[in-house]
Amino acid sequence: MEAVASVIYNRADGKKELFTNACLKPKQFSCWNKFTTEEADPKNFKIKIPRSVNKNKKNEALWKEAKAIAADMLADAFKPTTTANMYYAKSMIKPPSWANIMTKKETIGSHYFGYLSKHSKFI
Hints:
By secondary structure, the protein is of the alpha+beta class. Helix content is 28%, strand content 12%. The chain has a 3-stranded antiparallel β-sheet, covered by helices on one side. β2 (103-108) and β3 (111-115) form a beta hairpin.
């Protein structure tokens, strides 16, 4: 989670006022792809507790960890764990077209991370 938060942080150049924009830009983070236009508007954005959180204690603990990381980011207490500004999950059937041109590639957990200078402006 910290590595994905680092991608958001790096895309926003560490500027907390740009974190929401970095998250909600279309087709950047699949968890937000299905938001309506109104839900994806950074001015209206509200974090919703995923339904899966209430299903078991492990999900509840992960949700608390995610909220703590976000709180650190907003409090200027977050230190990125990677310089990556792109990532994708190993579980994808076919890697995205940009995956081969990432530099500084690394694997963290079940995700590939890297830097993509060609698309340095995400927000």
